[in-house]
Design goal:
182 residues, mainly alpha, 2 domains, two-stranded antiparallel sheet, 4 helices, 10% strand, disordered C terminus
């Protein structure tokens, strides 16, 4: 009975006792290696997008600060020879500072976008309903394996309580969950 799986349909997460299973572990446990491979692909996509976003944000911050730091100082003696030279120094400093600020802002915006995109890629590749079905099928197969007879699956409508798997034996499918079990 320690092998029974519990699903939180709101978060689309699966637990085995107190331990939350990764998507790959869940799909492997229920015998769906194709879904486990897709979950690994999602995990890789998340890692690359989030790491890439962080790298872009850091690199653009460094580049922007370096460009701003290289702006012409209008207080150097070469800029104070006449009005035209002074105005050219001011224009150069303004242009360089603006360019550095744009590099910094664009890089941080792009990096944040990539990190956000990666964060929103779900670990689970199935819908909550499909996850519940896979876990229920797994639990019912375990119930049969352990000698339960007349196993039945009761799935209420969308306006009723969450999905419930029951087995007509004296044990509960999930003693920790009030909505699982006979």
């Amino acid at each position: 009975m320690k092998e029974f799986l519990m699903v939180d349909p709101r978060d689309n997460t699966v637990r085995n006792g107190p331990q939350t299973l990764s998507a790959t572990d869940f799909y492997t446990r229920v015998g769906r290696t194709d879904l486990a491979a897709q979950a690994e692909d999602h995990k890789r996509q998340r890692i690359w997008l989030m790491a890439g976003g962080a790298a872009v944000a850091i690199a653009s911050t460094i580049a922007g600060v370096l460009v701003v730091g290289s702006a012409q100082n209008s207080n150097v003696p070469g800029c104070n020879t006449d009005v035209l030279t002074y105005n050219a120094c001011i224009d150069s400093a303004s242009h360089t500072t603006t360019t550095g600020a744009l590099i910094l802002a664009a890089g941080i915006a792009l990096g944040t976008g990539l990190i956000t995109w990666g964060a929103f890629i779900p670990e689970m590749v199935t819908t909550p309903t499909e996850t519940v079905r896979l876990a229920t099928d797994h639990n019912l197969a375990l119930a049969h394996k352990h000698g339960a007879t007349e196993s039945a699956l009761h799935i209420p409508g969308p306006n009723q309580r969450p999905m419930r798997a029951s087995v007509s034996t004296p044990f509960r499918v999930c003693p920790a969950c009030s909505w699982w079990g006979p």
